[in-house]
UniProtKB/TrEMBL annotation, chain A:
This is Uncharacterized protein.
Automatic annotation (TrEMBL), chain B:
Pfam families: Sigma70_r2 (PF04542), Sigma70_r4_2 (PF08281). Keywords: DNA-binding, Sigma factor, Transcription, Transcription regulation. SUPFAM superfamilies: Sigma2 domain of RNA polymerase sigma factors (SSF88946), Sigma3 and sigma4 domains of RNA polymerase sigma factors (SSF88659). InterPro entries: RNA_pol_sigma-70-like, RNA_pol_sigma-70_dom, RNA_pol_sigma70_r2, RNA_pol_sigma70_r4_t2, RNA_pol_sigma_r2, RNA_pol_sigma_r3/r4-like, WH-like_DNA-bd_sf. This is RNA polymerase sigma factor.
Length: 47, 194
């Protein structure tokens, strides 16, 4: 097995989450409705 | 699309009032800071993506249920959520089975300290430093690909997008970079080992 000599430069400035993750978050946000009734809250996900 | 100069507090307000574009702007504005922060603790792209996603799911739920009341401090708030999720992640993965010591069974038979000694650490640091100096000797295009791949953990697809060359060119540059490094090491009879 070859040795790995490089140490990962953590906290690199170019790092970004996957596009799929961001698009999932935006879609989730569009689909989610939170309804508060008295002291209970209900989450409704639209398909 | 909301203006990129709109303050966070206003974007949060717009989002709570129903503007989905405001959330897109907030994510775009802070994604690399938040993701970079998570990655700096986790050092794994996939798990970092998961935690990033969970962070924003919490953000969305809180904002949509009108429970958010820290105007003007959006980023620190999101960072705190991601920090808590990182702690949760480590708690989950660090859970270990419990062993009790008896006369026939000593805990030290299954436990070992594989941390490097001080000498080992110094050698590793020296090797890494030497390697960085060698990388500096490479042609610019090869150095760029090698650093992105090995030190910043990017995929060849990402590298090709950032540098504006095809994936095959990036792969080729990586190959030549490694070949050239080997050549330099052989030529100067450098010993990299630990």
């Amino acid at each position: 097995m070859a040795k790995i000599y490089s140490k990962k430069a953590l906290a690199s400035k170019n790092l970004k989450p996957n596009k799929e993750v961001v698009s999932f978050i935006l879609n989730y946000s569009q689909a989610l409705t939170v309804v508060k009734i008295e002291d209970k809250s209900f989450e409704i996900i639209a398909n | 699309m909301a203006d990129l100069h709109t303050p966070d507090a206003l974007l949060v307000k717009n989002y709570v009032e129903g503007s989905e574009a405001a959330l897109a702007t907030l994510i775009k504005r802070h994604e690399s800071k938040i993701y970079g922060f998570i990655y700096s603790k986790i050092a794994d792209r996939d798990i970092s993506n998961d935690i990033f996603q969970d962070t924003f799911i919490k953000v969305i739920k809180t904002l949509k249920s009108n429970s958010y009341n820290e105007e003007g401090k959006f980023l620190p708030w999101v960072m705190r959520i991601s920090h808590n999720l990182i702690v949760d992640h480590f708690r989950k993965t660090k859970k270990m089975p419990m062993y009790r010591e008896t006369e026939e069974f000593s805990i030290f038979s299954i436990m070992s300290d594989d941390a490097l000694t001080i000498e080992g650490k110094m050698i590793v640091d020296q090797v890494e430093l030497d390697l960085k100096k060698l990388i500096e000797e490479l042609p610019e295009d090869q150095k760029e690909v090698l650093v992105m791949r090995m030190y910043q953990d990017m995929s060849f697809k990402e590298i090709s997008e950032i540098t504006g060359v095809s994936i095959n060119t990036a792969l080729g540059r990586m190959r030549y970079a490694l070949m050239n490094l080997r050549k330099i090491i052989e030529k100067h009879q450098i010993i990299l080992t630990n």
